[in-house]
Automatic annotation (TrEMBL), chain A:
GO cellular component, as recorded: plasma membrane
Annotated ranges, domain TRAP C4-dicarboxylate transport system permease DctM subunit: 30-440
Keyword Transmembrane helix: yes
Protein name, as recorded: TRAP transporter large permease protein
Self-association state and partner proteins as the record states: The complex comprises the extracytoplasmic solute receptor protein and the two transmembrane proteins.
Pfam families: DctM
Function statement: Part of the tripartite ATP-independent periplasmic (TRAP) transport system.
Keywords from the named record: Cell inner membrane, Cell membrane, Membrane, Transmembrane, Transmembrane helix, Transport
Keyword Membrane part of the UniProt annotation: yes
Lineage summary: Bacteria, Pseudomonadati, Pseudomonadota, Gammaproteobacteria, Alteromonadales
Matches recorded under InterPro entries: DctM (IPR010656), TRAP_DctM (IPR004681)
Organism: Alginatibacterium sediminis
Automatic annotation (TrEMBL), chain B:
Biological process terms in GO annotation: C4-dicarboxylate transport
Chief location category: membrane
Protein name (Swiss-Prot/TrEMBL): TRAP transporter small permease protein
Domain Tripartite ATP-independent periplasmic transporters DctQ component: 25-157
Subunit record text: The complex comprises the extracytoplasmic solute receptor protein and the two transmembrane proteins.
Domain of life the protein comes from: Bacteria
Residue intervals passing through the bilayer: 12-34, 49-67, 88-114, 134-154
Pfam families cross-referenced by the UniProt entry: DctQ (PF04290)
Coiled coil (UniProt feature): none
A GO CC term attached to the entry: plasma membrane
Membrane topology label: Multi-pass membrane protein
Function: Part of the tripartite ATP-independent periplasmic (TRAP) transport system.
Subcellular location: Cell inner membrane
Length: 452, 172, 298
């Protein structure tokens, strides 16, 4: 017995207009999700319940239950996801093993004179990390985890600091290498290499925008404005940080030199931080279980949400929600600017409800042909799409970057989101610039020989 | 054995398993790099084993995270309620979670496990004592986590009841 | 009612086009409508197979290599250099042996409806691979299956089972020195951007399989079943044409993008894989007769 058959009589279902079947799943999915989130059900369970309900519309409850549990397992069955727990473990080890302090001291040497220096350091570190890995959540976990104790020590407000970490961690999805750009390239048959080159400037602009945000908002959100002067001599700080900096060299060299993949690099980072922590004698074997358990907690908060949101993506694809949205966009207007704008709005909204990979898989085939029709280059559109979804992973209810950022800093989502809103405004402005001026994206690839 | 002893034993067992899995996952991936780059004889099981460990950490860890009340939620309604109403809302939310977990994790999960076991789907690269691993055993984490979620959910619900009762007594 | 057909290929892929053709033709013949969900939006090949097994979706298209973990009989199709030529391949998979394999999984919740041409897999690397000696010491990415690993080992290379999602970067940075696949996948995965030599050794010809859920299949009337079988016969021809059109188009484009195609010295490869056959016969004596039947097929 399906939900549809439970509520409506067969005669009624016969005469129901098609419109009803299009709207019902959308209403049930978003309605259930909204209500459950509002009353304060944990997000992972709210998403799962909404998925179960939506699938229940046209599958009997027992089948729907099997489907949801299958999709949960399937959503976690991905090697690329390993970077998330490993960078969380590495971050915790670096904190407890004394690597983090040395690294940040070094960063302060460079940026300590700026007002709000630790926030800027956070953004820059996210961009640097982004050029190592293709994972926003790994970046948020590693950088956020290291910055947290330092920002606490210097009196940085937790909520705004988390917001900055969250908003700047997706830069790595545009700055190559990036798994999500590879995924887009495969679905859209565009060149991975040119997409990678095209991602540099938009990625840097995203980071720059957040730094401007720190300048503009720093005073209002009470970010310490005073210079941070280190007691140690600069040369000592540099010398002290060298072994920790070597981690960057090892990871970078290992990836570029073909020793390990970007995902495997995260496990190497764990081993190296462990080794250095022991070498500094700041890490004790006895402390390891508690470090690992902390990491499990931070990790599984996010993993369970990834699991249930994979069931929600299935529910959406199964109910043809993406196609309904595409039809809506095309019926709404024939003005190219309006259509482009609408597609951006839809992608922003989709990004708030869906995780990145399923969104790319589902919406690329729907929107790319429309974009090409409007004369947008596939490489440019790929950057626009990923940029949109980058904003999406920072927003509730399904924002993996938001979740990771909050779990590593211990901040409450409700406190972080208001601080994120002005940063979203900046991100959307940056996105508008990238949409309006194709040269920002296309200049570098064209320089490298790309022909549309 | 008293009830709080049982509770402690469950918690300790669960956290020890999770710690072990996390450590094992690191070792597995390092082994993958080591056998490929150093010994030039790439291991064939690490890719699968690491993914299975991740599934277990994600879902079993999800149950543990629920036990220690660390799951993220949007706390929009809760702060505006009186103490008793907060407890009532807690009971309601926990009931929903127990219902969801019973349907999806416990029922759906065990049906999923039994289906895949019955169809004898194997894991291509992982064998134990010469037999390829039946992949259904990997999925067993779902019903196990479901039972744990139900256990912790019921504990939390009765906790809330106790709190309401003591608050009422106190006010009289 | 709508019956769902899930697969993981992009819409431009020739197999997707053939499946679309199949769905459209069949929908006109039976009372249900068949709808294709490409790009893996309903799940990976493994998930799709599981959904077929418990009747959540009706149909899926997966590689015969993947089916090894669902039904042992498909293993034999992954043996290297199994066929003398293309005609031999067609007589095997479209003949009684093919039929036996397709039917073998009825009690496991699914039935193979048809084999679909998926070409031959060959190596792509930074240099021409003419004889197995050229592979010596190279790290070659393989699908994670014991047989695929044995094949690469017997050819003197080092097999690396690496997740497909990591492969592009791994090829680019040199984590592996090469991979192996058919032309359409080499083309649509964009791996040609980083590995420019495609050497035709054609070590395996593992077909794709169109799979139907046993539950769904039993739900059709006899008449519907025979109508579907008829459409499938025609789909095979459509697929042959789609595939070869796409391959020739892809090869022109690949050549224009600087890819060099190399004809390998196949007999030297065939000689090198003998140990794979010995091991297979020892491990799976139950397939010994079938192997002889395949070799005796005209
Ligand atoms: Na990146
Ligand atoms: Na979001």
């Amino acid at each position: 017995m399906t939900l549809l058959e439970l509520i409506f009589s067969p005669e009624y279902l016969e005469v129901m207009p098609d419109f009803f079947y299009d709207v019902l799943p959308i209403a049930i999915l978003f309605g259930t999700l909204a209500v459950l989130l509002l009353i304060g059900m944990p997000i992972a369970f709210a998403i799962g319940s909404a998925a179960l309900f939506t699938i229940f519309i046209d599958f009997p409850l027992d089948k729907a239950a099997i489907l949801v549990s299958q999709q949960m397992v399937n959503g976690l069955n991905s090697f690329g996801l390993l970077a998330l727990p490993f960078f969380i473990v590495a971050g915790n080890l670096m904190n407890r093993g004394g690597l983090a302090v040395r690294l940040i001291n070094f960063a302060m040497l460079l940026g300590g004179r700026l007002p709000g220096s630790l926030s800027h350091v956070n953004v820059i570190a996210n961009m640097m990390f982004g050029s190592l890995s293709g994972s926003a959540v790994a970046s948020a976990a590693a950088v956020g985890g290291i910055m947290k104790p330092l920002q606490d020590k210097h009196g940085y407000p937790t909520a705004f600091s988390s917001a900055i970490n969250v908003a700047s961690c997706p830069t790595g999805l545009l700055i190559p290498p990036s798994n999500i750009l590879i995924l887009y390239a495969l679905v859209s048959s565009t060149s991975v290499q040119y997409l990678f080159i095209a991602g540099y400037i938009p990625g840097l602009l995203m980071g720059l925008g957040i730094m401007i945000g720190i300048f503009l908002l720093g005073k209002r959100y009470k970010i310490p404005q005073q210079k941070i002067v280190l007691e140690q001599r600069p040369l000592n700080v540099i010398f002290d940080a060298l072994p920790s900096l070597l981690l960057v060299v090892i990871i970078m060299g290992g990836i570029v030199g073909g020793v390990f993949t970007a995902t495997e690099a995260s496990a190497i980072a764990v081993v190296y931080s462990l080794f250095l922590g022991f070498a500094y004698k700041e890490l004790k074997v006895k402390a390891l279980p508690s470090i690992l358990l902390d990491s499990v907690l931070t990790t599984s908060i996010v993993l369970l949400m990834i699991a249930t949101s994979s069931a929600m993506s299935w529910a959406m694809a199964n109910a043809d929600i993406p196609n309904a949205i595409a039809e809506f966009v095309l019926n709404y207007s024939s003005n190219p600017i309006v259509i482009m704008l609408l597609m951006n709005v839809v992608l922003l909204v989709v990004g708030t409800f869906m995780d990145m990979s399923p969104a790319v898989l589902i919406f690329t085939p729907i929107f790319l042909p429309i974009a090409i029709l409007l004369g947008v280059d596939p490489v440019h559109f790929g950057i626009i799409l990923v940029f949109n979804l980058c904003i999406g992973i920072c927003t509730p209810p399904v924002g993996t970057a938001l979740f990771v950022g909050c779990s590593v800093s211990g901040a409450k989502i409700g406190e972080v989101v208001p601080k994120l809103l002005p940063l979203f405004l900046i991100m959307v402005t940056t996105l508008a610039l990238i949409v309006a001026f194709p040269a920002l994206t296309m200049w570098l690839p064209e320089l490298a020989g790309y022909k549309s | 054995m008293s009830f709080s002893n049982l509770n402690q034993a469950v918690n300790r067992a669960l956290s020890s398993i999770l710690i072990f899995f996390m450590g094992a996952m690191v070792v597995t991936v390092v082994w993958q790099v080591f056998t490929r780059f150093v010994t030039n004889d790439p291991s064939v099981f690490t890719d699968e084993l690491s993914r299975y460990l991740l599934i277990w950490i994600g879902i079993l860890g999800g149950a543990y995270t629920y036990a220690v009340k660390r799951h993220l939620a949007l706390e929009l309604l809760m702060p505006h309620l009186s103490f008793t109403k907060q407890q009532v809302l807690c009971i309601f939310i926990n009931l929903l979670i127990v219902a969801f977990s019973s349907i999806t994790f416990v029922y759906g999960g065990s049906a999923y496990v039994l289906n895949t076991l019955e169809h004898q789907q194997v894991s291509p690269g992982l064998s134990i004592a010469g037999h390829q691993l039946l992949i259904g055993y990997v999925y067993a984490v779902v019903p196990i986590a479901g039972l744990l979620i139900n256990y912790y959910g019921v504990l939390d619900i009765s906790d809330s009841f106790v709190k309401i009762l003591t608050a009422k007594k106190g006010s009289k | 009612k709508t019956i769902k057909l899930s697969h993981i290929l992009p819409t431009e892929h020739p197999v997707h086009q053939s499946l679309e053709w199949f769905a459209e033709e069949t929908s006109g013949e039976i009372k249900d409508r068949i709808k294709v969900y490409p790009n893996g939006t309903l799940g990976s090949e493994t998930t799709s197979m599981q959904m077929v097994q418990n009747g959540t979706i009706g149909l899926t298209k997966v590689s015969a290599a993947l089916l090894e973990s669902f039904s042992e009989s498909y293993k034999i199709l992954s043996l290297p250099y199994l066929y003398r030529d293309l005609d031999h391949y067609y007589s095997v998979v479209n003949g009684p042996i093919g039929k036996e394999i397709l039917e073998s999984s009825r009690d496991k919740g699914f039935i193979g409806l048809a084999f679909m041409d998926a070409g031959a897999r060959s190596f792509y690397t930074d240099k021409p691979i003419v004889t197995p000696a050229d592979l010596a010491g190279m790290k070659i990415r393989v699908q994670n299956s014991p047989l695929a690993i044995d094949i690469i080992k017997s050819l003197g290379a080092t097999p690396v089972p690496l997740p497909y999602g990591e492969l592009y970067s791994a090829l680019q940075q040199g984590v592996v020195d090469g991979a192996e696949n058919n032309i359409p996948s080499y083309y649509s995965s964009r791996h040609f951007e980083v590995k420019k030599f495609y050497s035709y050794d054609r070590h395996t010809m593992v077909p794709d399989v169109l799979v139907v859920s046993t539950d769904v299949w039993n739900g059709f009337t006899d008449e519907e079943r025979s109508k579907i079988r008829n459409v499938i016969m025609k789909t095979n021809d459509v697929q042959k044409k789609n595939w070869s059109d796409y391959v020739s188009k892809a090869k022109v484009d690949l050549a224009a993008k600087g890819v060099t195609f190399v004809e390998s010295d196949t007999p030297t490869f065939q000689a090198a894989v003998t140990p794979v056959y010995d091991k297979f016969k020892a491990e799976y004596p139950q397939f010994g007769d079938m192997l002889i039947d395949i070799q005796n097929t005209k």
